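Complex record, two chains
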Amino acid sequence: MKRWFQSKSINTPSPVGAVLSYLILGTWAFLILFPLYWLVVTSFKISSQVAEGPFYIPFVDFKPSLDAWKYILVGDLSQDTIRNFSNTVIVAPTSALIALALGATAAYALVRFEYHPRIGAILTFIGCIILSIVAISLGVPWQVALAVSMAVFFILLQTIGRRFKRALGNNDIAFWMISQRMLPPVAVVIPIYILFQRLHLLDTYSALIITYVTSNLPIVIWLMRDYISTIPIELEECASIDGASRYRIFWTIVLPLAVPGLVATFLFVLVFTWNEYLLALFLSSAKVQTLPLTIVAQNATRGPQWWNMSVLILIMIVPVIVIAIILERYITRGLLIGAVKG
Amino acid sequence: MNTKPKELQTSSRLHSVISTVADRLAGSVFILPTVLALLFLSIFPLIASLYVSLAKCDIAPGGFKLTFVGLDNYKKLLVGSEGTHFLGKFAPSTPLTWVVFGAVVITLAVFMIKYLLNARVSISGVIGRVLLTVGLGALTWILVHTLWNEGRLGTASTTLVYVFVGIFFQYILGLSLAMLTVQRLPGRRFFRVIFLLPMMITPVGVAYMFRMLTDTSKGPFTPIWQAMGLVDFSWVNNAWGARTAILIADIWQWTPFMFIVLVAALESQPVEPIEAATVDGANSWQIFQHITWPAILPVSMTLILIRLIEAFKIVDLPNVMTNGGPGTSTQSLTMHAFINWRALNIGASAAVAYMLLFLVTFFAMIFVNLIRQRAVETL
């Protein structure tokens, strides 16, 4: 009797515990899969079958049709779908990788180095930026305004800036970085649009990639900061005594040990950029539109085209699931085991 | 006997000089690209939208014309024509509201006095705590007058409900599911991939999907609604019903975020302390409390902070599922900004966005400075 409640080793649950775990896991899996099942079923319906009420099982309740799939994949919408799909495939992984590379180095820097940006320097910098914006709005060419304000900034930094000794620390830098995500996209989308218009980058991959990288950097930094701080510092000290440079330590010790965190973070950023809607709506007009725009476009004048939407949503999830299945195994236990003992 | 050629010696000395210089610069090299990238895309939009929020935007020949109007847009939100929309409709005070409000004020006062009697009082600490007391006091005042009786929640308080209720359930569910799937159970990888699915659907897609599911006459749960006698019931008629529907969708979508990060955190936890504790006869609750919990606490704090910031920007779900209705009761702050923006009232929209920024900053500051720090210190 007692052995039903006893676990054999630390991570293997007891028989009763295993049954309970499966019950809970199964329930949650059902709650997740049912809405997706409804999407699949809807994608095989035609408009009258959706309008007449709930039909659950194809062939039993209703006669499935491939109309929506044909319309999206080989019919009228196929050109749009394929173009937008390949745009998404290009933009999302590229921005995710760049954000991960920049963010992981910055996160390492915030964990292992100490920074003391002086308040005086920051205030002069902000002042110069405001001055240059005022100058630009008064009609000064932006190249001149920017150059002058940079020059003023460096002069002030060398003279007045040195007098204010009060400095901020790493936590303040990290908070500043995460605060970049606080303004809702609705508020920033017009200034960003104007910015890229001036740079003649509208409707290009670079505009989307630059925006996605910067908007996801804070998340990468915050997640990676926690993973990196769990890596024992002894390893790095040993390597440093053996004469390894900071770059070498980062590349050969920190990054390999942070792989679970890197993989999880990459997945998020990939998903966020893959699914982003509002910024893509503004920064792309025809050439580089992404798939979420196609989905929303199905809410046409005749009301939402549920069947087309379902097909598009399903098409959008498949690649991400494949990537998730491939990457999942890297998020495994035991990478740090024995690392310190040696 | 020096066998090394002379050339090689100098080059290696040069090399070592370069490498020490490079090593000294490492701190800047690691962080500067990120700082520059963030500066490039953040400062201009921030200042530009601040200016727009202080201006009135009119359609003029050849585009828009901005007229500076000072704090008018903010005044309208707080005490003017947009007041009921933003803050909610205030019900008259009752004894109960005074009791709740009084209790919160006394707690805040005790907290303040305790700090002032402390030996280590600093000016920035006092300013921070005064802001905290005033902010929380004002929020309580708004909530006790709009949450029940004839009161109606405004967009600001509705957003707070979405944020805090949503995050609470997402974290609890994410943590329990993560704990269950790190056990050595056959098929746990299958469950992990399944549990990730909701996060991978585009938010707009999730919103449309839940609009299908919550339809009371054509959705899959129609028999259930019929059994409950709710066939003609529409989410658009009941404020709390509609909010619950949106919250369920939000929890469904974002629990995976908590789940996967917590799985990674639990997986990278060293096994030895747990083994040692088991040998010493600790039960599983003690192991969780003293070993697992401290190990995942920093990651949890980060997760909650990120979700806090993201959840304040909720817009797709209410916009698609209920279109903000009934009335304005499911509108979030971002949706409020979006509605103003669609009506080409861009100054007012930017003002709402900035109020949102103040609110998020307020809660993020409380979270980082008080809760996160204290939680990490007590380890």
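Note: The beta strands of chain B are 55-60, 63-68, 88-89, 152-153.
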